[in-house]
Structure formats: C-alpha cells, structure tokens
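During the reporting period the student researcher (J.K.) took over the structure-prediction task from the postdoctoral fellow and processed the backlog of single-chain submissions. One of the processed entries is reproduced below for the supervisory committee.
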Amino acid sequence: MRRLHPVAAVAAVNAAGAFAAFMKDVLLAMFLGTSVQADAVALAVFVPEMIGILLLGTAIGTACVPIFAKIDVLDGRAALADRVWRTGGQVALLTIALYAACLLAAPSIVRWLAGGDGALEEATYPLLLIVLPIAVFYPIASVGMAVHQTLRSFLLPMAGPILTNVFMLASLSVLMAAGSSGQSGIAVVSWALTFGVAVLAAALWLPIRRMLRRAEPARDNPVDSADSSIAPRLQLWAMAGQYGLLLAGTHVVYLAERFLAARMETGAVAALNYAFRLSQLPVWVYVGAFAAVMLPQLSRQLALKQSKELRDTMLKGLHNVMLITLPVTVLLWMLREPVVELLFMRGSFDRRSVLLTADVLEGYALTIAFLSIGAVALRYFLASQSLKAPTALAFLGSAVAIGADILLSARYGVRGLGYGAAAGAFVNMLGSVILLHRRIDLGGMIRPALRILAANLPPALLVWGLSAGLSWLGAAEGFMLLLVHLAGAALLYGVVYIRLLRSMKLVQFGLGERVKWRIRW
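J.K. obtained the following structure tokens:
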C-alpha cells in the first residue's frame, strides 16, 4: 500500500457524506432543538439503526468482504457471482423475518426505551413503524457494498450517506420553508430517511450484474486453491455471526447510554445523539476510508500469503490514523462548546441545548483516537477471520463503559455518559493493540507513537492559551467571532503540529507535491 490515492478518493467521498450528514443534523437541530420530538426521533431511529445498520448490516457486509475477496482470488469471478446472489437472497429472507418480529414487539420496545414517559412513548411509536423497514433495506445494501469493495470500487459504497441524507435534507428544508411544526413534520422526516436507505440499496445492486460480468483480471501469481474447498456459505455466516456478536458487545453501550439518558432531563437523548454524531465525523471521514481500502487489501495479502506486505499495510494504517486523529481529538475536546455553538445554535437549538450537548461531547471527543486505532487494528482480525479474542475484548470494553456510565452519570449527569464511552473505548483500543502485537511485530511502534503524542503538546498549550485569553476578554461571542476563533485555533494548531512532525521526520512535504507520510518504524 505504498500509494494511498484510493484512501484519498474514499476520504473525499466520505467528507461529502459527512457534510451532508452534518447539514442534516444542523437543520434537525434548528427544527427540533432538544425537545420531546427530538428525543422521539432519536429513539425511533435508534432501533433500526442498532439492529439493521450497526449490527446486522455491518456484520454481514464486513464479513462478506474477506470471503468474497478470497473467492475472487482463488476460485474466479463466476464462483463469486454465484455466492453474491445466494448471499443477497439469504440476507433478504433473514431481515424480512426479523422485521416481522420487531413489528410485533414494537409497543414493548418503545415502552422500555421511553422509560415510562407517556409523551415520549406516544411520539416515538408511530415514528418507529415508519423507520423500521431500514432494518431490511440496509443489510441488503451492505452486501452490495461488500461486492463493490471486493471489486475495488469504493466510491459508490462510500457515497451511501450522501444519498440517505439528501432526502432528509430536502424534507427538512421544505418543512422549515413551509413553517410546519415539529410534531407534524417528524413523520415526514422519518419517511424521507426510510426512502433514502431504500434508494441506496437499489443504487448499489443495479450495477452489480454488469460488474460481475466483466472480464476476470489476470492473476500475477498462481495460487493454490486448496483452501477454497471450505464451504464459503458456512464460512461467511460463521464470520458474520462472530462479528455480529462482537458488534453486539460493542454497541450495547449505545443502548445503555440512551436508556440512561431517557431518564434524565428533557433533551438528553437528543444531545447525546448530536454529540455522538459530531465525534464520529472524523472517524467516518478518514478512518472509514482507511478501513474500506484496508480490509480487501489485507484479505488478498492473507490469501496470497504476503506476510511482509500485510505487516506494512497494518503499520502504515496505524501510523497515518494516529497522525490525523490525535490532533482532532485534542482540538474537539478543548473547543467543544464553541464548536457546538457555531454549528447548532440557531432556531430551536438554544443556549441550554448548546451546554447540554457540549457536556456530552466533553467525554465523547476523547473516543475519536481510541476508536480509530481500535478500528484499524480490528481490520487484521476481520481479514484473518479470527474474532474470538476481539469479541471477548469488546464485551470487556462495554462492561467498563456501562459501569462508568452508571457511576459517572449518577454524579455528573449527562456529562458522565461521554466519559463512560471514553473509558470503554480506551480499554478496547489498548486490548486490540496488544492482541495485534501478538500476531505481527509492533515493537517499533512505541517510539513513533510517543513522538506523535509529544508533537501535540505544544500546539495544544498554544490553543488553550488563545481560547482562555479570548474568553477572558469576552471576544468570542457571535457567529463571525466564533468562526474566526475556531479557524484561528485550528490554523495555529495545524501549523505548529506540522512543523514539529517535519522536525521529527515523521512527515515530509514537497512544495507543490502531494503529502508523503514517511514511516520510520
């Protein structure tokens, strides 16, 4: 993976998707603020998001990539086409059955999530019925994404969030222009989201038949296909089950957070949702690009027994992700309140909403680096189809997070939920790196990691001093002043950070050339 232009291309598409999602969140915050309706939308969407996207969709789609890549390398394109269509049909049947079960259990699900709040329960139930089909559409779409990634077509799968968010953006814009109330408009927004996911599934599957009919690429190295005798169907579902269990262990934290937030002050669930999505943007844009490109690459390297290339891919991925996510983590933690105020404080999103969201973001910002490093390390275990230890680690991290959530929220309120998430993410990240070190040598990682950490200290102190000075002078109020404050802080941090990285010979810039990241491990 010497050239990272696929990562850059995918990151650019991810950035466009993140911008669309961000604009959707801004309009939703303007439209609903942190009201009961905002909590209802967050809870209703959470159910199909947890079941269909975070668990089933992610598990099945991710499991398909190494299996499809192995079939393509060892058995050829015809065998891949057969497996793709069979898997798509099986996923459709599974998700339809799951949808029917969720439909029957919907009243009980809403009653439990709402925590006995009658108004919240009444607002959430009809929305859940609207968005529940997402649990069918997204897993089907995820199989299509896996096919595109296996065939090294990354842009359309990564453009998925653009499609889904465009429909929500359009519906919110029309509702706000028409002056509709939050209560009457939330159903329209929910229908727009469901329709967007259905369009995404169709857009991914329509070109697949043509893609699978293309001429099979010539193979540089002859490959012994003895390993291909393992039934791919059983292998795929076994891996999907293992990864689904891992995701369940990880994402049970989200359920616990919303369960606790629903029993706090009004708007806590919505604030949690805004803070969570804001903290996930860097992970989505940059780390998501690396993960999308790395997984099929690692799977092919394992199938071809390219040990050295595989180790280089992992080291470069970890190094580059640390270079980017550590400064983003520090900046968002220090500037959380002005960031939330600049992005969301308009319409129904008032000063109380800003403070509530910033409180949650205080801890959530710390998860950016932890989740990013853990996600890159996990790609190796997904590619090698060895998920037992990472699954146990996921449950351990979740137990730590939930325990911290309960203890800290009892003392610090909604702020404690963010720090609970950070504690669990740190445990998961640390364990993932230790497990990875047992598989490939990461002994030379300590020194460059410490140097990257050291490079973040001087710019962090400068930005802290700048923010403290502006706050003391009262010069950071109003949209334009906030914008100048944040832009100046980011520029100051970036210039000092890059200068330090160059002096440490961790990166090299050529004038008029693209950035080259030098690995000194």
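The committee noted the following: The two ends are 16 Å apart (CA to CA).
J.K. will present the remaining backlog at the next meeting.
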